[in-house]
């Protein structure tokens, strides 16, 4: 049944009908409709089910405060859940699905929850479903998850594009109602760079709907003229469909522009995130009407009075034919008049005040509307749609009630300024007794880098309620912001009168003495099904803080973040505590004002450009030679090179055996390379490393350990002394930037008088390890350098030309084999790699990856930062005492390593582990000892840090940290796997292969 | 998102250009210090409601460490200065006192 009126609808174009699908029904709307107005126009009031009780729910609001009308929008790669029908512009072909209904909106089996609501009180998540334990996992959790499911996550990657914009302005004005327009006009005239953002597609806000007159003309005309004036100013940027999402430190703000939500498929980016720096911010964000709490205030057809007026005036839609209006203020009479003007029936106005004969009420009565003063709605009749209301006295308990037939109810509980953006960065609020709302306290504004106020509010957002006051306040805010930004401004406001309105009366429960049966049907938070009775119960159970009550009852925790419910909930909380509302305070307002898409946050940073990839000089060669990649920091390193038909395990085993038996080749370019230079370089490295580096001779290498001031091992690597005052420090692959920063910190902030300079040359050099018994033969075949044992002994380095390529060769080994690491200028690294591959064919040269590297180092008992260390391990735990100088007075970490806990004999220490059956121990498995701890868990005595199948030895090998480990050689201990099976392993030396180091020193 | 001026290169740095480094003007205690001194050096950090001296590195810029005097409550920045000092410079202290006459100085 169409509810579209014959006349009216200032935002729709009746010449342009649009087709859309909701819940599999093909429906029609008009260009200019929102999805909500189109649904109402098509007679669809019931649009969703509530989250907890699955009660039928209809459209309540006309803007971002809407709690109920959430839909899944689009399909496939364009699907997005939790979209608000009230802020979704209609387009031809739009497809939407309701979210919480199963199997259908009309018949929802989960609605039994409603009968059970007695058993689902406030905090029911915490109270119930705990015992018996197994029930939680297998019964309660699956049922709750099914019942409480809101939008379903999309199943396909988002097909749309997004982008970020950066803007720097003098004055940012958020909100394009008459206050925002006036503030922007004032600021624009001052010459300041102004950005004005409006979240909807339309400028002017509520003023035209409310029938305001400005400068002696209809609001629409003033808005059009002001907009034209702003567009003519080169220093002013206007953006509609752009929401002020958040205000942050020092004038940073986020704008969320919905560029193409209403024109899908036109090739434009869908959303644009504006990252704004503003000297001054003016929030002209308006106000949101509050619901009233009466029994059945959630039945479809009960709507905010202002929203009802929006639907009639803006979209030519009748939310009902026969509308009861219930209010505690004069503004709702504007809705009464709008309904009558549209030819709809208003059987009665229920006014909570004892007297109501202000100008607006009088006009309504003059036009024949009955007004019941001091009255209340006792309850709403109807389940899926309002069928009528029962009226009673406002100060009573409810009683029998007098029935009134109607199909909709318009409610108004007063207005709350939108203070979110003001509050995001610390703006404080005051309570107005007159209007029963919180409003910004200009004396406690958010402050910027100079201690200046950088956020101002304008219009109703300041608490100014009349049109004239709004414009004056906005002009003043625009002028003040311009002056603070360094411009001369005049606060000349457009002229308008403040309509005469009688005082409102705060009404938090209707009727005031309502019995529990009624209170348990008065909804505060529609989306989360929080009722008046829930807040009262929470107070009875001892909840006094507003923040805790919020979390206990879930009031205001839905994706509308309590835009409708918070003040009403606070008032109930205050009343139940016997406190004043300002003493109870509000919960914290956090950005974003409304949910923004993840796509907009990611912007362009997705896929390949999500994070820049660091490539070694041989990256492309690896790619073309069947590499299986492993991410290491921002690098990709070859994990292994599987041949056709070979799995990773087989490839790794082949690479290890080829290297051990003949010749392997490793791209070690990711190794961190820091040059430390200067007269004090040796002294500096003595402080950074646990060993003494100043005694290292030029031409020699030394393995070193770095600890943090807590004494824990942080990085390791080989240091080569290049000349008297130059060292080359190798760091772990992921560690170069971190260690460079660490060195700079100490040089700049502690020993700033030491003459040392550090440069990170990691990417200037390619590094290639030539490893295996035939390594020397290969280098000799290339020729040009003497790499004999005598000329280049173990732990030495030389410079020269190898087959015409300049190299620095380090004789160091991380595999236990004869090994040369060739450092080569990055531009020539690939050429050298190719020469080595060609020349090495006669020894079946085999490129190997990180897994083979790890296995070979584990076979040798070499530790790996991040495997054997986890930020709580000191070198002494790892049997590395030999690398700690006893002669030095100080090094970073030395004092910490003297602390009692660090010298305790009870620390877990490094050992090798061999399973009795030769299997591979599970990584990270814990060894169990005698007895149990305070939680009834078995005591642990050690854990596995590295574990591999050793192709060389044909069995599983592992390293681990074990209590008194080195003193327990040969002992068998028990490890428990995640499937609770027990694996026995013998404690052995961590050096499994070539314990005397004969192979690397040949 | 804060803006702090790097005292080395003069750039007004967006917070994304900076890396935080915790409390400024710590005195290092090494071997020979008592357990109490060393514990305080490692772990005891000020967390004032008000004026705080802190370390920042212009990490995505000139790479220099610098120090800032900032209010943790109002976000007001009283000044930034080079890290090669053990005490806040006199002009920074004067700037704080000018704004906050009751400030008792760095404790």
Automatic annotation (TrEMBL), chain A:
Quote the SUPFAM superfamilies the UniProt record gives.
Aminomethyltransferase beta-barrel domain (SSF101790), FAD/NAD(P)-binding domain (SSF51905), Folate-binding domain (SSF103025)
Report domain GCVT N-terminal positions. Answer: 618-888
**Which Pfam families does the record cross-reference, listed alphabetically?**
Fer2_4 (PF13510), GCV_T (PF01571), GCV_T_C (PF08669), Pyr_redox_2 (PF07992), SO_alpha_A3 (PF17806)
Q: Which organism is it from?
A: Aliiruegeria lutimaris
Q: Where is the Aminomethyltransferase C-terminal domain?
A: 909-994
List, in alphabetical order, the Gene Ontology terms for molecular function in this entry.
sarcosine oxidase activity
Q: Which keywords does UniProt give here?
A: Oxidoreductase
Every SoxA A3 domain range: 520-603
Quick check: keyword Oxidoreductase in the entry? yes
Recorded hits in InterPro entries, A to Z, give: 2Fe-2S-bd_N (IPR042204), FAD/NAD-bd_sf (IPR036188), FAD/NAD-binding_dom (IPR023753), GcvT/YgfZ/DmdA (IPR028896), GcvT/YgfZ_C (IPR029043), GcvT_C (IPR013977), GCVT_N (IPR006222), Sarcosine_oxidase_asu (IPR006277)
Instruction: Please list the GO biological process terms of this entry.
Output: tetrahydrofolate metabolic process
By what name is this protein known?
Sarcosine oxidase subunit alpha
The cross-references to PANTHER family, in alphabetical order and at most eight, read: AMINOMETHYLTRANSFERASE (PTHR43757), AMINOMETHYLTRANSFERASE, MITOCHONDRIAL (PTHR43757:SF2)
Which family is this protein grouped under?
Belongs to the GcvT family.
Record-annotated FAD/NAD(P)-binding domain positions: 170-421
From TrEMBL, chain B:
| Stored Pfam families | SoxD
Q: Tell me a Gene Ontology molecular-function term this record carries.
A: sarcosine oxidase activity
Q: Which GO terms describe its biological process?
A: tetrahydrofolate metabolic process
Q: What is this protein called?
A: Sarcosine oxidase subunit delta
Organism name: Aliiruegeria lutimaris
């Amino acid at each position: 049944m169409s509810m579209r009126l014959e006349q009216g609808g200032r935002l729709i174009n009746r010449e342009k009908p649009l087709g859309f699908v909701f819940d599999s029904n093909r429906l029609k709307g008009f260009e200019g409709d929102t999805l909500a107005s189109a649904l109402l126009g098509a007679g669809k009031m019931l649009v969703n089910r509530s989250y907890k009780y699955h009660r039928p729910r209809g459209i309540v609001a006309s803007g971002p405060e809407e709690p109920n009308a959430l839909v899944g929008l689009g399909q496939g790669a364009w699907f997005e859940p939790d979209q608000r029908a009230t802020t979704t512009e209609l387009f031809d072909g739009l497809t939407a699905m309701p979210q919480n209904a199963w199997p259908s909106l009309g018949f929802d089996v989960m609605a039994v929850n409603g009968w059970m609501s007695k058993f689902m009180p406030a905090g029911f998540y915490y109270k119930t479903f705990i015992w018996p334990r197994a029930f939680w996992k297998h019964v309660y959790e699956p049922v709750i998850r099914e019942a409480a499911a809101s939008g379903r996550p999309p199943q396909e990657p988002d097909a749309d594009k997004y982008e970020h914009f950066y803007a720097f302005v003098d004055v940012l004005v958020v909100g394009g109602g008459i206050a925002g327009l006036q503030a922007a006009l004032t600021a624009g005239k001052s010459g300041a760079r102004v950005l004005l953002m409006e979240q909807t597609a339309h400028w002017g806000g509520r003023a035209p709907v409310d029938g305001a007159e400005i400068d002696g003309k209809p609001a629409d005309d003033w808005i059009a003229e002001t907009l034209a004036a702003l567009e003519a100013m080169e220093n002013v940027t206007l953006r509609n469909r752009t929401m002020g999402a958040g205000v942050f430190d020092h004038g940073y703000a986020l704008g969320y522009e919905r560029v193409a939500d209403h024109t899908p498929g036109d090739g434009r980016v869908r959303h644009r995130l504006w990252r704004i720096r503003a000297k001054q911010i003016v929030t002209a964000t308006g106000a949101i009407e509050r619901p009233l709490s009466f029994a059945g205030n959630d039945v479809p057809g009960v709507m905010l009075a202002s929203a009802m007026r929006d639907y009639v005036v803006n979209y030519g839609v009748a939310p009902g034919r026969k509308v009861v209006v219930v209010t505690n203020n004069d503004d709702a009479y504007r809705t009464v008049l709008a309904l009558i003007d549209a030819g709809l029936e208003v059987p009665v106005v229920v006014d909570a005040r004892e007297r109501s004969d202000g100008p607006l009420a009088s006009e309504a009565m003059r036009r024949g509307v009955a007004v019941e003063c001091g009255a209340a709605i006792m309850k709403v009749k109807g389940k899926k749609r309002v069928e009528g209301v029962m009226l009673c006295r406002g100060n009573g308990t409810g009683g029998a009630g007098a029935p009134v037939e109607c199909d909709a109810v318009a409610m108004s509980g007063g207005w709350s300024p939108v203070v979110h953006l003001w509050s995001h960065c610390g703006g404080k609020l005051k309570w107005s007794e007159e209007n029963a709302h919180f409003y910004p306290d200009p004396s406690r504004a958010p402050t910027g880098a100079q201690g200046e106020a950088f956020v101002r509010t304008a219009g109703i957002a300041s608490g100014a309620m009349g049109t004239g006051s709004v414009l004056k306040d906005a002009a003043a805010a625009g002028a003040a912001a311009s002056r603070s930004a360094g411009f001369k401004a005049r606060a000349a406001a457009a002229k308008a009168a403040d309509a005469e309105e009688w005082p409102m009366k705060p009404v938090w429960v209707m009727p005031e003495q309502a019995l529990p049966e009624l209170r348990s049907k008065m909804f505060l938070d529609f989306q989360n099904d929080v009722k008046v009775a829930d807040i009262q119960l929470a107070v009875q159970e001892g909840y006094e803080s507003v923040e805790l009550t919020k979390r206990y009852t879930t009031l205001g925790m839905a994706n509308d973040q309590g835009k409708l419910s918070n003040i009403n909930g606070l008032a109930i909380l205050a009343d139940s505590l016997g406190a004043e509302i300002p003493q109870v305070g509000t919960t914290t307002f956090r950005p974003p004002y409304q949910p923004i898409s993840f796509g907009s946050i990611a912007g362009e940073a997705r896929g390949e450009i999500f994070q820049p990839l660091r490539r070694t000089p041989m990256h492309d060669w690896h790619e073309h030679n069947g590499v299986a990649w492993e991410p290491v920091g921002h690098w990709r390193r070859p994990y292994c090179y599987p041949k056709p038909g070979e799995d990773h395990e087989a490839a790794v085993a082949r690479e290890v055996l080829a290297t051990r038996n003949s010749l392997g080749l490793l791209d070690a370019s990711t190794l961190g390379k820091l040059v430390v230079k200067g007269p004090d370089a040796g002294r500096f490295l003595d402080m950074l490393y646990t060993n003494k580096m100043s005694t290292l001779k030029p031409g020699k290498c030394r393995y070193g350990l770095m600890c943090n001031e807590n004494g824990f091992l942080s990085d390791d690597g080989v240091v080569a002394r290049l000349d008297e005052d130059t060292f080359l420090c190798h760091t772990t692959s992921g560690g170069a930037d971190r260690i460079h920063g660490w060195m700079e910190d100490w040089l700049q902030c502690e020993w700033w008088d030491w003459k040392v300079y550090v440069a990170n040359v990691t990417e200037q050099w390619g590094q290639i390890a030539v490893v295996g018994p035939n390594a020397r033969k290969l280098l000799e075949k290339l020729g040009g350098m003497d790499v004999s044992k005598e000329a280049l002994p173990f732990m030495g380095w030389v410079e020269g030309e190898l087959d015409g390529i300049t190299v620095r060769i380090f004789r160091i080994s991380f595999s236990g084999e004869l090994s040369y690491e060739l450092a080569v200028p990055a531009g020539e690294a690939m050429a050298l790699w190719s020469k080595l591959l060609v020349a090495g064919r006669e020894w079946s040269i085999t490129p190997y990856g990180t897994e083979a590297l790890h296995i070979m180092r584990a076979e040798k008992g070499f530790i790996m930062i991040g495997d054997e260390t986890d930020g709580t391990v000191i070198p002494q735990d790892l049997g590395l005492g030999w690398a700690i100088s006893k002669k030095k007075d100080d090094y970073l970490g030395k004092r910490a390593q003297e602390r009692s806990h660090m010298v305790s004999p009870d620390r877990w220490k490094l050992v090798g582990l061999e399973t009795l059956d030769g299997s591979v121990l599970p990584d990270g498995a814990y060894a169990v000892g005698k007895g149990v701890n305070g939680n009834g868990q078995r005591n642990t005595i050690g854990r596995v840090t590295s574990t591999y199948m050793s192709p060389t030895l044909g069995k599983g090998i592992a390293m681990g940290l074990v209590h008194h480990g080195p003193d327990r050689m040969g002992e068998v201990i028990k490890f428990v796997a995640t499937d609770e099976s027990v694996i026995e392993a013998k404690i052995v030396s961590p050096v499994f292969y070539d314990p005397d180091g004969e192979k690397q020193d040949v | 998102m804060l803006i702090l001026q790097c005292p080395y290169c003069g750039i007004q740095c967006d917070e994304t250009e900076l890396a935080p480094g915790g409390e400024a003007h710590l005195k290092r205690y090494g071997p020979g210090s008592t357990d109490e001194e060393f514990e305080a050096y490692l772990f005891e950090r000020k967390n004032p409601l008000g004026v705080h001296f802190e370390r920042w590195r212009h990490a995505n810029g000139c790479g220099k460490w610098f120090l800032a005097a900032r209010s943790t409550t109002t976000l007001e920045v009283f000044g930034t200065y080079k890290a090669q000092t053990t005490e806040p410079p006199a002009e920074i202290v004067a700037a704080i006192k000018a704004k906050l006459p009751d400030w008792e100085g760095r404790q």
